[in-house]
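Homework-ish question, so no full write-ups if that breaks the rules, but can someone show me the predicted structure for this set?
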Amino acid sequence: MLVPQPRFTMIEYYKKPFSRSESLGALNFYIRDWFEKKYRDPTPPQLYSFKLVREKKNLLITAPTGSGKTFSAFMTILSDLMDMAEAGKLEDKIYCVYISPLRALNNDIYRNLNEPLDDIYKKLGESVKRISVAIRTGDTPQAERQKMLRKPPNILVTTPESLAILLNAQKFAENLKSVRYVVIDEIHELANNKRGVHLSLSLERLTDLIGSDFTRVGLGATLHPLETAAGFLVGYGDDGKERDCYIIDATWDKKMDYQTMCPVSDIVNASDKKIDESIYKTLNSIIKKNRTTLIFTNTRSGTERVVYNLMHRFKYGEEHVAAHHGSLSRESRLDVEEMLKKGKLKCVVSSTSLELGIDIGTIDNVVQLGSPKSVTRAIQRIGRSGHRFSDIAKGEIVAINRDDLVECAVMLDSAKKRKLDSFTVPRNALDVLAQHIVGMALTKKWKIDDAFALVRRAYSYHSLDRKDFMMLIEYLSGSYVGLESRRVYAKIWYDANEGAISRRGRLTKLIYFLNIGTIPDEVSVNVYGEGNRWIGSIQEEFLSRLKPGDIFVLGGRLYRFDHSREMKAYVTRAETKIPTIPPWFSEQLPLTYELAIEIGRFRRELADAVGKELRGVKGIAALLKKRKFAGGKTAEEILDSMPMDKSTKSSIVSYFAEQLLFAKHVPNDRLMLIEKTTDEKGERSYLIFHSLYGRRVNDALSRLFAIEASDMFETDIGIMINDNGFVIVTGAELKMSRDDISKLVSNVTNSDAVRIIRGNVRRTEMMKRRFRHAAVRAFMVLRNYKGKQISVKRQQINSELVMKAAEEISPDFPVLKETYREIMEDVMDLPRAREILKKLKEGEIAYEIIETPFPSPFSHVMVTFGEADVVMMKDRRKHLRELHKHVMQQISKRYG
Amino acid sequence: MQLTGDIELGDGLPLLYIKSLNSIVCSDLHLGYEGVMAGRGSFVPKMNFRKIKETMADAVKKFGAKNVIVVGDIKNEFSDVHVEEFNEFREFIKFLREELEIEKITLIKGNHDNFIDRFRPALRFEIYAQEALLGDYLFFHGEEAPKSRGGKMLIMGHLHPAIGVYNRVGVKEKIRCFLYGKLSDGRRIIILPAMNYFAEGVDVNQGNVGEMAPVFNDMLDVNTMEALCLGEDEILDFGKVGALRKL
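A: Not a homework solution, just the prediction itself:
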């Protein structure tokens, strides 16, 4: 008797490449011939993929630019199609779908696929049927869509959104039933956001449509953990186990050479002007040494500033140096890309727009100005350099301040040790799911059980609660309004007795087609001052970070945010010199948690070494001069193993020594320093939490502490947050004893964090804006109705009404629930903030309360964070200098 | 809260009771609001009608009234009667008659109430265009200045009055209110807050109200009016609007 074998599933690394001949042997004769003439040898990822894709294995391939990633998938797919063509079996059917998040990339792929086909068919003539390729995006004209419907291409190049539309296009969907391969490019740009979540559901719908599994190939720059990325790519089978997938990690096959550079020999003591000058001198010397240099800044305004300075300081013209970022027009970006491809530019400066895999020709060197905030991102960016895969990728990070310096040093050390920071896939996002349930119901009648099973096959929804799913079904079937109104409100028909859903409403299909997608419409918000005077505009995302009372910079002046209404923000002039929110706040990416912890660990090790070395020497200068130390790892030894230049080493040592001499403690991964101090004028009290866990965690922590402090001390409280900690700001008159602070910590660690945060964000701008995004995604507030575009302003007003009613219905109303989830898990990192609180409570992380006459060195950047970008404000820098002077006077008084 | 010997404000409720008419007076219900919104692509859950029914039931229980006067804008759309509006409107009349045993329903037409006349025979209610003198009171909706010089007190809707105040952390909040004051000819006037659940209200201590209601152009100064705000279950007297303007 046959015993059914349990399916053994696996996601595993494939570590042994096939031989050249095995790999090439997997290709069709003509394809191989073309490939060998063009490239001769397969690249490392291709030595795995040719054979594995030919065997129809699911595959995740990560490799840097120039590694022949796309051909690693397509050479075999083309081989398969060519075999069919030769055998006369190639029909007008879609066999392969290629999906990328970027339309620009679609055009590259189209070209790259047609190049071998043109060459091959020149030889073959018309005796063999030509393999056809076509692009289908939102831009595709109606006539071409019609043509595609009549004569489908063999390879369809598309975007996630267009795929979801095609799945619902009745006639076209028939053409998708023949799909055997799906290639997903730039998977690192999809796996961590709602766009990817949306795609993962489309893939399961496609599988369902076909009735069997197809081969999935994911391509991307490196990300971690790759197992999660692979899981995201393949999803789960009917048996509840992950589908098989091999991981090919060629990231490290490319040699990389990188280091942290300190622009001056001592960043702690150098003057602002000196630092500025040295930064540009450093950049210029790198540009001169290389043919083409790519410089990344952290913000768009930073990009502009660097281009301006390079041109003016070193007389570069527009034909040498160019900017490339998201705020520039499509045309000017394309111009720059063209110039790059032709090798004309000496240097291009970009914020994030050149991170993606668009073809930009040869880059010899990648410079990052200021920390890129993530090890993975640093590697991805550096991986953009090097002409061929065999070239060494070269990169530098030029630090812009002391905390930045430490951060970059640890980041590149982690890169060297291949310790990447991890990404997370948003889980069980109800708004995205709502879209797909509507889409599914439009195609046919579904048993609830079948629909639920399909959804759970997608990685992002594998843990979806049946209760949440049913609540969504209820919502979509209009259960929140009376029977007589469901005609208008319901998007699906739901029969509870039969346990089935299907289409409802004559407009629903139109709503689905016109409102699909996950990227919210963003607009800028006009800012008005006293007397309704227009001052300028800010990005909506920035507005959503503002709390009433926050001080921010606009057009070089400081304003206090009062309130907003629809798409207008109202402010008053602020007299104070300290902004609570820096202008780049919404643009600059937060430091990753893993890297933050690594920096904390580094701080602990190095502070220990520097502390020992400080014994018996007088002052920092003496310490730096005399390097004879006893016992344990020396500072020298720790720093020597890290990729950094000499100035970085000495700057870091003196920075740590200064903190130790002034405050006796360097905060680290096991020690949270809580520093009670005042600003230099003694006007305000600071309670500085040195909690180095990244901004997302600190966002949650700071709110919890501020709410508790506000209750305990019955006072108004301001908060400043960055990656390294947060500051609770009160009036100077507030007396807070050590016991009070201990009590504060104990109260917060014992509180119900989720409930408090929920209550806290409920009335915020962020809630209002994010609720709109979720309501739009869940088709509750439409952006396009019957072909008429609805303005973002209108969407916002309407979604605030929806929110008001939804809160009344239930705190668990799906759109409301999703908004809270998004804020607590995607915007903030409440889960990890809670872990930190638990560790604080259990003593795994200790805390130390210190009182200082003014902020200690490690808090300077925190209390003056306007400096943390190349676009610096004079006031902030002056302020920082003053702080530093105070500290040095104090130290010299004590140590002579 | 007793406003005069004859008028009591529903504590926390956006309506008032007139003893001599044994009538509840309310305004600006905008029935069918969500349905109209849904017809434009924003699926606002229905909440308004439910809340209005609750409010009316509370008020009838509290005052034991037998009559209801609506001072305009019982429905939402300007032009034709939307099917969603008609359903809620009919339900509302039915609810007042059958559940709350209201005998007489009087409607002063507002700017949103065109085309409502056609339902009068079927649903049996009194209807007046723009203004009506009932007992000592001149009821008028408010988007036009009152024409009649009669009545000891005027009762108006239309404005959706509220005051804007800043809470401790600087967030602006709007609190719906009654406005109570005196016209230049000596008659008293009270302006009703909106019954509509979604109406935030117009903050009378900030904007220019003259544009919205012509009564303010020459007959009435909003600054001299008292803001009687709706608390949880009480009326909170915020004093004169003029003083609140300086906040």
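Now go work out the reasoning yourself. Hint: The first helix of chain A runs from residue 20 to 25.
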